Amino acid sequence: MANIEIDKERCKGCCLCVSECPRGNIRMSELLNSSGHTCAEIIELSECNACALCCQICPDLAIRIHASDETPPGPLIRIQETGVSKQPSGDRKQETPIGGQE
Amino acid sequence: MEFKRPTALLDACTHYCGGCGHGIVHRLVAEVIDELGIRQRTIGTAPVGCAVLLYDYFNCDIIECAHGRPPAVATGMKRVLPDRIIFTYQGDGDLAAIGTSETIHAANRGENITTIFINNAIYGMTGGQMAPTTMIGQRTTTTQDGRDITSEGPPIKVCELLSSLDGVAYLQRVAVSTAKDVIKAKKAIKKAFVNQIEGRGYSLVEVLSMCPTDWKLTPKQAVDFVNNEMKKVFPLGVYKDKK
Question: Which residues of A touch B39 (CB under 8 A)?
Fold first, then answer.
């Protein structure tokens, strides 16, 4: 199973990953993120072989694949009662601080 | 397999529209900077156009230039600081309209800089007017019946235009409309940076990119437009590779 994560707050709903996935394993969620965009989501994590073609085409770097020994990404975002998804707290990692070091 | 944000790109959400190709090209340039280990000695130039806020996204030095003048600014920086890696990031309005003169003369002088040229066949930031690269028959807000060759002329093909200049070291046209094209585009961008490190002269990579908003298309239709229409008028390939 690929250690893949779609950052729904970064997704702008362009659907390019949906048409690029060779296994047809990405679909558009019915959820909206806080910016009002519909978000892409992995249909079945166990079907993903981490080919990263979706990562290549995503204009917003919303899709990440973590190394297999890395801590798995946070829980998938669930449907909120309001119909608007929220980013779980502490889920997003700050990988590149401004003015960060090499 | 691991895929994460390159260090040379800040953890910022871009202002680009959904399906815009700028975000992909930003990532490719940042990945190349990371792979070559040149982030702390790289200076980029931000154009006027949709990529005007480039300095908010790159984790390296960026200087904002007057419209069309990045090649002139880059020339100055490279001559004063020859150990730095200088790249210009320009759209078709910036490079092929107001900046035509600067581009042609910097290329002709063989300035040792790298240019990333985004060709989306339209003016994006100002609302979809005709660009020098707009194709015959393409509708824009200023060519509402389609670009007419008798009144507006044919599109400028920058790689073909610059290929006749002796100072130019490397010219390649790539696209970012499919994952396969994106991988090829990265190789071209990397070569353009390596050329500069090796002191070969002016290198330019033209990237056919999507502008779904101003083309009035969905992102998927915009990808098809690049694949089916733009690639016919602007064929992909290497136009010059001086050894």
Answer: 102
**What letter would DSSP give residue A5?**
E
* Residue ranges covered by each domain of chain A: 4-65
Residue B89, token pair as written in the block:
């990031």
Q: Which helix (H) or strand (E) holds B106?
A: helix B100-109
For the record, the structure tokens of A83 come out as 């119909």
Contact call for A55 and B3, based on CB within 8 A: yes
pTM metric for this prediction: 0.90
C-alpha torsion sign, points B120, B124, B125, B128 = positive
The H or E element spanning position B205 is: strand B202-208
Residues B32-61 pLDDT 10s: 999 999 999 999 999 999 999 999 999 999
- Please report, rounded to a whole number, the percentage of residues in chain B having pLDDT higher than 90: 98
Q: Name the residue in chain A with its Cα closest to that of B24.
A: A59
CA A33, distance to chain mean position in Å, is 12
| pLDDT at residue B243 in the model | 78
CB contact under 8 A, A14 and B19: yes
Question: Which residue has 């044919």 as its token pair?
Answer: B154
Q: Which CATH number fits domain B22-241: 3.40.1190.20, 3.40.640.10, 3.40.50.970, 3.60.15.10?
A: 3.40.50.970
Contact (CB<8Å) B9/A15: no
CATH (residue range A4-65): 3.30.70.20
- Complex ipTM above 0.90? yes
Contact between chains at B182 and A56 (C-beta distance less than 8 A): yes
